[in-house]
Design brief:
Blueprint (H helix, E strand, L loop, with lengths): L1 H17 L5 H4 L3 H14 L4 H11 L9 H5 L7 H8 L7 H10 L35 H36 L5 E4 L4 E4 L11 E2 L2 H6 L18 E3 L7 E3 L14 E2 L2 H8 L3 H6 L2
Antiparallel strand pairs: 1-2, 1-3, 4-5, 4-6
Helix pairs in contact: 1-7, 4-7, 6-7
Length: about 280
């Protein structure tokens, strides 16, 4: 579904730039022009909660008053290049935040993408009114049945593949981790463990395969760049520098404390990341 949303955003952009009164910044989307367009759009349009989520995902958190002007103005210009590359080659893979920023810039509606509310163009829900005028042949059941058959045929391959993957994952977990239905924090990652096994000074929790495979502490924060924004989360503890992790959630040793998305300010103030550092580490 997101691919369809992506195509709609691109088509909307193409229609916008084809009009006579379109901003010259959008018609020539260099990184510098995209930044200028962002500042212009932000200053001239009202923004609801959904737009603020898009801005946070791309630019980081606003100031204490909730204003994104400084965040946009201080955003490193070369970091707009992925948006430019997506506009120039929309069939290539691109991070969702780049697509959502383009949707915001061109005022595409509805935005952002939501799996539970997305509707394809021309879609209309089936009517619940089953009343038929007298003398009208009862031929409405055939198209409905046909539509269901088409939907089943269209998605049966995807459903079968999903079931196969789920079954394979379950089989591997049963073979590789027999009896290991708990896990514990091993300093920089989670380790699976038998729930009946006790380790002194360590508290085990219920097994979470997503955290087990993807939640890790970044032990080399000096490798981070501005491209880590949106992919890294942090928390301030008693340590001199914030602790950074590869996924969202809570701190493994302080479950009552939520992790926050990494921001450019945190990168600059605590890890000394500069524009030159980011370019050098590409």
């Amino acid at each position: 579904m997101f691919e369809e949303y992506k195509e709609l955003v691109v088509k909307h952009y193409q229609n916008v730039v084809a009009s006579e009164d379109t901003s010259v910044y959008l018609k020539n989307p260099t990184p510098a022009n995209l930044k200028s367009e962002c500042l212009k759009v932000y200053g001239s349009r009202d923004h609801d909660a959904a737009d603020k989520r898009i801005l946070i995902d791309f630019f980081g958190n606003p100031d204490k008053l909730g204003d994104f002007g400084e965040a946009i103005n201080s955003f490193i210009t070369p970091n707009f290049r992925p948006v430019q590359q997506f506009i120039q080659a929309p069939t290539r893979d691109s991070h969702p935040r780049n697509i959502e920023l383009l949707a915001w810039l061109t005022d595409y509606q509805p935005r952002p993408f939501r799996f539970d509310t997305f509707k394809r163009p021309g879609y209309s829900p089936p009517s619940s009114d089953t009343h038929q005028p007298p003398g009208t042949p009862d031929n409405t059941a055939v198209p409905v049945k046909k539509n269901w058959k088409q939907l089943i045929k269209k998605y049966q391959k995807e459903s079968a593949l999903a079931l196969i993957v789920l079954g394979l994952m379950t089989f591997l977990l049963m073979k590789i981790l027999p009896g290991k239905q708990c896990m514990y924090w091993a300093g920089d990652h989670y380790e699976a463990i038998d729930c009946n096994r006790q380790i002194f000074g360590v508290q085990s929790i219920a097994l979470d395969t997503m955290k087990l495979n993807h939640f890790k502490k970044i032990t080399r924060p000096d490798t981070m760049t501005t491209y880590s924004i949106g992919k890294v989360w942090y928390i301030k503890t008693d340590n001199p520098k914030p602790e950074c992790f590869t996924a969202d959630g809570t701190h493994p040793l302080y479950p009552g404390r939520d992790l926050k998305p990494l921001t450019l300010t945190i990168l600059r103030n605590h890890f000394g990341i500069t524009q030159q550092d980011s370019i050098a580490k590409k």
